[in-house]
Each structure stands twice: as C-alpha cells, then as structure tokens.
Amino acid sequence: MAEDLHRAGADPVGEGAPKRPWHRRLSLTTWIFIALALGVLCGLALQGAPELADAYVKPFGTIFLNLIKMIVVPLVLFSIMAGVVSLDDVRQVGAIGGKTILFYLATTACAVTLGLVFANVMSVGAGYVMDAGELAYETPAAPSLVDTLVNIFPSNFVQPMADATMLQVIVIAVVFGFGILAAGSKAAPVVAVVEGLNEVCIKIMRGILLVAPIGVFGLITPVIANNGPDVLLPLLWLVVVAYVAMACQIAVVYSGLIKLVARKSPLAFLRGEAPVMGFAFASASSVGSLPLNIECAEKMGVSKPVASFVLPLGATINMDGTAIYQGVCAMFIAQVFGIELSLGQQMTIVLTSVLASIGTAGVPGSGMIMLAMVLQSVGLPVEGVALVAGVDRILDMMRTVVNVTGDAAVAQCVDAMDRRGAARRAARKAA
User: Fold this and answer.
1) For labeling, which of 151, 171, 178, 430 is most exposed (least CB within 10 Å)?
2) Residue ranges for the chain with pLDDT beneath 50
3) What one-character-per-residue DSSP string does 58-122 give?
4) pTM, two decimal places
5) pLDDT tens digits, residue range 319-365?
6) Cα–Cα distance measured from residue 41 to residue 230, given in angstroms and rounded to the nearest whole number
7) 287, 397 in Cβ contact below 8 A?
8) Which pLDDT does position 362 carry in this prediction?
9) What is the CB neighbour count within 10 angstroms for residue 338?
10) What is the pLDDT of residue 144?
C-alpha cells in the first residue's frame, strides 16, 4: 500500500515509511514565491551596485523569458487551431468568441471606472503642483482605428510568426481552424498533425516551467536593484492608489464573476491562479505568462478548447490592469496640473480606455501610447506621461497580474456557461 501511494505521488504514512525530500514536496507555486521573495531581498542588497544585478543575475531571467517567448507563438497558433477544430461547429466558435469579447469589454470598463473612483476618493495627485512647461515628452504615434483594423489581418503567413504579432497569429489560427472544419473528413490528417503539434508545445511548455523559479529570481532582482526608494518614494501615493484599485478589481470584479457566473469558489480560483500571478508580477509580461495561465486554467477544470481560445485572445486584447493604470494616471496628471475633470470627461476616459485596450494591443510600449491617447481625448497635457515614466515598471508588474487574472476569470466563466448550455441542449434532446 505504501508503495502504491508513493507511485501516485502521495506521501506514504506509517512508521518507517519513506518520505520525499522537503524540496520535492514543495509545489511550483511555493518555489515561485520563494524565488520572488529572494529576488526582492537580493535586489535590496544590490541597490548600491545595480550593475552587478544587470550583469550576473538578469541574464538568467532573460534566458527564461526568451524560452517562454520562443514557445508562445507556436503554442498560440496550434492551441487555437486545435480549440477551433475540437468545437466541430462554426456557430459554437462564434458563440464562445462573442461571449469572450463581451466579458473582456465589460471587465475593462469596470477596471477603468474603479481606477477613476479610487483616484478621486484617495486624491491621487494631492500635494503636487506643476506647470506643463516644466516637462518635455515626445508623444509616441498612436495607430488610427482604420490602421488598427487593417493591421489585424496579416498579408502573409510567416511574418507574424517572426515578429510575434499575436493578434495576427490569432487571426491566422482561427482562419485555418475554420478551413479545417470546412474541409471535413478530408482534413483528418491535418487535424491529427495540429493536435500532435499542440501536445508537443504543451510538453515543451511544461518543461520550461520547471525552471520558472530561477527565471523569476533573475527577472525581479535587477528591477528592485535599479528601482529603489529614490525612484519610488516621490510617487509612492500614485503606486499605492493604483495597487489598491487593481487589488479591488481582483477581489470584487473577478471574484464576483467566479462566484455568480462560473459558480465556483473565488478563493479556490485565486489559489489555483497564484503561480500565474507570481510569474506575471516578476516578468511584467502577459504574453510571457500565457503558457502557465493555460496550464493552471486546465488544472482548475477549464476545457482545453476554451482555454486554448479564450486565454490567447485575452493576452492580446484584454488589458484590465492597464485600463486601471489609465484611469489612475489620468486623474493624477489632471490633479498635478490643477485641472478639474468633469463627469463627462471621466466617462470619455472610460470609453477611450476600453477602445484603446484593443486598438493598441501588441504595440511596443502600448501602456504609454494608450495613456497619451487617453490624455489627448480629454485635453490633458500629454507631457504628464513623463511624470509616471519613472515608476512605470513598478506599476507594470501589478497591472500584468490583473491582466492575466482577468483572462483566467473570463475563461472560467465562458467555460461554465458553455457547459451549462451543452447540458440544456442534451436535456432537450433527451426529452
């Protein structure tokens, strides 16, 4: 009996029963948070010599992130194709896609509204007075709506893969998935290849995640070493307000969706999502967190087709944490420059942030571009972006946590609704 338990991975009990070493009993989640804590401590210790962290610690994080980025494109391509094919019905793909986008738009609207509420209530810019002429900031060019729509559709198959243009990769995957469904039985060999390559990508992903604690340590240490109190303290209240609003988005909005729509325990969801949140905080990369997010979602019961479709789409277009950042920073800049924003202007910020969260998806430095667009929409000085640039990396860590947690919450809700719909259809057929 003890031998059977040992094979199953459980800790055998009883006097004289062999026990696994302590380091093998710890879960990946525990190791990630240990690495995160050690990275913070080492970063604080190296604040006097951040160049050491950059030269000797950062490469480990960079290598790990490169491995994640290497597998993300094929994983997204084949997982979405496999997800579309497994649904067997184009109408079902459309239904899931429609629910997903509606959830993403709704949670983003809630996010930016929360950001504005907390920024107003907590007076995020209190104590600062500044003239716009004191700052100089070159506004990055934001793509127009027409350009954004055109750029979603790739002109060839290979270039989006090479450039990791994720929205175009998703379009390619969906188009080819529909093509496989339309071809019917003639595409059976292609289905087998797609499902096989998807499984290969998953195995590679799981292998890479085994060294996640080393990667997390290598990513967080140089951030702490380079962004010490000298950078953080002057804008500490901005960081506090943004973090409180983001924590509220997770605790209220996502937990509410999990409870009311997915009909599951919010605490169980947050425990299951903890490894993704820890990795997202250290890496500040939603796309880089995608493989781990898919892994955790499936462990929490989300079907593979839904996880393979909803999460890659969310990593590209759903930026709830970034939307909160827009609301808080817009109010901060308005208060710093002594500009009173009306309720109508704040509603404009909500609308612009929701649209910009999709419109600038995949653009390098999209957070700053989105903020510049939001400021322009209500007539605030764009130079104010320079005020928050110093703590952008600190804010980026938490907003990435919110982004990936929102993706996972929506995946849970869409999967639960899909299962209930399937059960109703089965009941009608049985009747």
Assistant:
1) 430
2) 1-15, 17, 132, 134-140, 362-364
3) HHHHHHHHHHHHHHHHHHHHHHHHHHHHHH--HHHHHHHHHHHHHHHHHHHHHHHHHHHHHHHHT
4) 0.73
5) 888 889 888 988 988 888 888 888 888 888 888 777 666 655 544 45
6) 17
7) no
8) 44
9) 11
10) 59
Distance of CA 254 to the CA centre of its chain: 14
pLDDT of residue 345: 83
User: Which pLDDT value is given to residue 32?
Assistant: 79
pLDDT, tens digit, for every residue of 75-93?
878 877 887 787 666 676 7
Q: Rounded to whole angstroms, how far apart are CA atoms 154 and 48?
A: 47
In total, the chain counts a number of residues equal to 431
**Amino acid, single-letter form, for residue 62:** T
Q: How many other CB atoms are there within 10 angstroms of residue 380's CB atom?
A: 25
Dig out the tokens for 157 from the structure.
């198959």
Could you tell me if 110 and 255 are in contact, meaning their C-beta atoms sit under 8 angstroms apart?
no
Quote helix, strand, coil % in the chain, to nearest 5.
80, 0, 20
Identity of the amino acid at 72: V
Closest CA to 308 of 73, 101, 78, 97: 78
Question: What dihedral do alpha carbons 237, 239, 244, 246 form, nearest 10°?
Answer: 150
Name the token pair of 25.
Answer: 């009993």
pLDDT at 289: 84
Q: Which amino acid is at 171?
A: V
Burial of 14 (0-12, 13-18, 19+ CB in 10 A): exposed
In terms of phi and psi (left: phi > 0; alpha: psi -120 to 50; beta: otherwise), the region of 365 is left
Which CA distances in Å does 234 have to 133, 136, 238, 295, 397? Answer: 20, 19, 9, 39, 18
- Provide the pLDDT for residue 134: 47
Question: How many angstroms separate the first and last alpha carbons of the chain?
Answer: 46
